[in-house]
């Protein structure tokens, strides 16, 4: 099935790309979550609009991405959240929480869709989180999750 990506999907493409995927993957995952729309002849206008919006929000060059990477890796991020006596969190830390904490710690504004968690954060402690800034540049940010 041909689809138009509306958001960047790891391993598939960037927003505005027209890709072929299996029908079930598109119908059950990408389209319902808003990551893609079905391709139509009229959808080509949407592709141009999505690409224009992407250019405004994305980091254009690798040099800019490396500058932002240096700023991100220099920031110490502390995330206060509710936890039980054993250090287990009530819920988990989401990419949106991390993006907000990075900005609150004095770091640059980061889109929550660019934050990649290896596994869900469900306990107190220190973690390394990857932030995809450009197709070739990713920053590793140290996050300390503490009890509120």
From TrEMBL:
<dbReference type="InterPro" id="IPR020069">
    <property type="entry name" value="Ribosomal_bL9_C"/>
</dbReference>
<keyword id="KW-0689">Ribosomal protein</keyword>
<keyword id="KW-0699">rRNA-binding</keyword>
<dbReference type="Pfam" id="PF03948">
    <property type="entry name" value="Ribosomal_L9_C"/>
</dbReference>
<dbReference type="InterPro" id="IPR020594">
    <property type="entry name" value="Ribosomal_bL9_bac/chp"/>
</dbReference>
<dbReference type="InterPro" id="IPR036935">
    <property type="entry name" value="Ribosomal_bL9_N_sf"/>
</dbReference>
<comment type="function">
    <text>Binds to the 23S rRNA.</text>
</comment>
<dbReference type="InterPro" id="IPR036791">
    <property type="entry name" value="Ribosomal_bL9_C_sf"/>
</dbReference>
<dbReference type="InterPro" id="IPR009027">
    <property type="entry name" value="Ribosomal_bL9/RNase_H1_N"/>
</dbReference>
<dbReference type="InterPro" id="IPR020070">
    <property type="entry name" value="Ribosomal_bL9_N"/>
</dbReference>
<dbReference type="InterPro" id="IPR000244">
    <property type="entry name" value="Ribosomal_bL9"/>
</dbReference>
<protein>
    <recommendedName>
        <fullName>Large ribosomal subunit protein bL9</fullName>
    </recommendedName>
</protein>
<keyword id="KW-0687">Ribonucleoprotein</keyword>
<comment type="similarity">
    <text>Belongs to the bacterial ribosomal protein bL9 family.</text>
</comment>
<feature type="domain" description="Ribosomal protein L9">
    <location>
        <begin position="13"/>
        <end position="40"/>
    </location>
</feature>
<keyword id="KW-0694">RNA-binding</keyword>
<dbReference type="Pfam" id="PF01281">
    <property type="entry name" value="Ribosomal_L9_N"/>
</dbReference>
<dbReference type="GO" id="GO:0005840">
    <property type="term" value="C:ribosome"/>
</dbReference>
């Amino acid at each position: 099935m041909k689809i138009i990506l509306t958001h960047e999907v790891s391993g598939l493409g960037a927003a505005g790309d027209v890709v072929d995927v299996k029908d079930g993957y598109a119908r059950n995952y990408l389209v319902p979550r808003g990551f893609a729309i079905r391709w139509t002849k009229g959808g080509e206008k949407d592709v141009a609009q999505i690409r224009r919006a992407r250019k405004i929000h994305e980091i254009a060059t690798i040099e800019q991405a490396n500058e932002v990477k240096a700023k991100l890796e220099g920031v110490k991020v502390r995330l206060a959240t509710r936890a039980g006596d054993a250090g287990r969190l009530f819920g988990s830390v989401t990419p949106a929480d991390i993006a907000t904490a990075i900005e609150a710690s004095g770091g640059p504004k980061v889109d929550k869709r660019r934050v990649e968690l290896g596994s869900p954060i469900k306990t107190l402690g220190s973690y390394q989180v990857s932030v995809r800034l450009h197709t070739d540049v990713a920053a590793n940010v140290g996050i300390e999750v503490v009890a509120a």
